[in-house]
């Protein structure tokens, strides 16, 4: 039987509609969720993502402020802006669009964001809380995967999840969040020997490798659930994932497409985290 195609765009839209209602309620109680986005340099993809974040905020009713800086921005000025936003009561979420130009330390900048406003879930405090299974801001792409599976009624409990990739933004948090869902988790990466021997055992594969169509039908067991986080260009310059979608969908139980799978969930979970942050602030105010 052909795979179910998981429609990330539709799921993301459903969540945005729910958020819009929550935001209306918050506003009626005098709280407007606010997000500040810092963008440094002229990476075109980053500019597109930031524009999309701004648009998504407007669509659901989140106040957004975008700070665009030239590529030669000094670390001092950047850290000063973050410090200012940390203190700004109208701002509940701060994010610095990655990647940053090479002369800027991503670690230093992320460390400077208040963990209470770190809606990207990149700050070590939030990563640490996630690692010990506590509530925190979780990294948007992996959190989006968890929410997407939840909406598709796919439980991870007792399933063998094989994560391919160990980045701080996707691979590692995807593994930790899968573990939190009581999956049995294996993490593979570029130094893994005989990768296919692992992915073929998986009930669920989360592919975050960054190589176009790297995993093919034979790398999966029949009936597997395939989550493709990749965003690559194929030989014709067309956007594609880490999985050879056309072949893999023949035997998978369910699969996410690229585009329209995991991608749209990323910005939606950013909106979600920003609303959570505003709600937390509103609750603290009545205490
Ligand atoms: N500070 C952050 N930087 C980066 C993050 C992040 O979560 N926080 N993630 C990525 C980029 N990103 C958001 O910032 C992002 C990537 C992809 C998509 C998306 O919707 N993809 C679409 C395809 C879009 C296209 O046509 O080009 C899809 O897969 O359907 C949204 C957000 C790195 N930096
Ligand atoms: Mg750098």
TrEMBL record:
Entry keywords, A to Z: Amino-acid biosynthesis, Histidine biosynthesis, Hydrolase, Methionine biosynthesis, Multifunctional enzyme, NADP, One-carbon metabolism, Oxidoreductase, Purine biosynthesis
Domain of life of the native organism: Bacteria
SUPFAM superfamilies per the UniProt record, alphabetical: Aminoacid dehydrogenase-like, N-terminal domain, NAD(P)-binding Rossmann-fold domains
Record-linked Gene3D superfamilies: Leucine Dehydrogenase, chain A, domain 1, NAD(P)-binding Rossmann-like Domain
Similarity remark: Belongs to the tetrahydrofolate dehydrogenase/cyclohydrolase family.
Pathway: One-carbon metabolism; tetrahydrofolate interconversion
Catalyzed reactions per annotation: (6R)-5,10-methenyltetrahydrofolate + H2O = (6R)-10-formyltetrahydrofolate + H(+); (6R)-5,10-methylene-5,6,7,8-tetrahydrofolate + NADP(+) = (6R)-5,10-methenyltetrahydrofolate + NADPH
Enzyme Commission number(s) of this protein: 1.5.1.5, 3.5.4.9
Positions annotated to bind NADP(+): 165-167
Quaternary structure and partners: Homodimer.
Record-level GO cellular component terms: cytosol
GO biological process: L-histidine biosynthetic process; methionine biosynthetic process; purine nucleotide biosynthetic process; tetrahydrofolate interconversion
Ranges where the Tetrahydrofolate dehydrogenase/cyclohydrolase NAD(P)-binding domain occurs: 139-281
Keyword tRNA processing applies: no
Gene Ontology MF terms: methenyltetrahydrofolate cyclohydrolase activity; methylenetetrahydrofolate dehydrogenase (NADP+) activity
Organism: Pseudobacillus wudalianchiensis
Function of the molecule: Catalyzes the oxidation of 5,10-methylenetetrahydrofolate to 5,10-methenyltetrahydrofolate and then the hydrolysis of 5,10-methenyltetrahydrofolate to 10-formyltetrahydrofolate.
Name listed for the protein in its UniProt record: Bifunctional protein FolD
Domain Tetrahydrofolate dehydrogenase/cyclohydrolase catalytic per the UniProt entry, residue ranges: 6-120
């Amino acid at each position: 039987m052909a795979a179910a195609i998981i429609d990330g765009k539709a799921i993301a839209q459903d969540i945005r509609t729910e958020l819009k209602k929550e935001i209306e309620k918050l506003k009626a109680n005098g709280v407007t969720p606010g997000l500040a986005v810092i963008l440094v340099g002229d990476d075109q993809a980053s500019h597109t993502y930031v524009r999309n974040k701004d648009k998504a905020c407007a669509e659901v009713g989140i106040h957004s402020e975008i700070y665009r800086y030239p590529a030669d921005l000094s670390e001092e000025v950047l850290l000063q802006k973050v410090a200012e936003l940390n203190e700004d009561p109208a701002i509940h979420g701060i994010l610095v669009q990655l990647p940053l130009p090479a002369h800027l330390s991503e670690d230093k900048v992320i460390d400077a964001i208040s963990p209470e406003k770190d809606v990207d879930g990149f700050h070590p405090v939030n990563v640490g809380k996630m690692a010990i299974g506590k509530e925190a801001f979780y990294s948007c792409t992996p959190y989006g995967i968890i929410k997407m599976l939840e909406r598709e009624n796919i439980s991870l409990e007792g399933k063998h999840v094989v994560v391919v990739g160990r980045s701080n933004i996707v691979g590692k948090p995807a593994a930790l969040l899968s573990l939190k869902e009581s999956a049995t988790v294996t993490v593979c990466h570029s130094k893994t020997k005989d990768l296919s021997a692992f992915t073929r055992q998986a009930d669920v594969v989360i592919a975050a490798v960054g190589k176009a169509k790297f995993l093919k039908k034979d790398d999966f067991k029949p009936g597997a659930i395939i989550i493709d986080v990749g965003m690559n260009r194929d030989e014709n310059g067309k956007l594609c994932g880490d999985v050879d979608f056309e072949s893999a969908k023949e035997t998978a139980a369910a699969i996410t497409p690229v585009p329209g799978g995991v991608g749209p969930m990323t910005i939606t979970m950013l909106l979600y985290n920003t609303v959570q942050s505003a709600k937390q602030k509103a609750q603290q105010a009545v205490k």
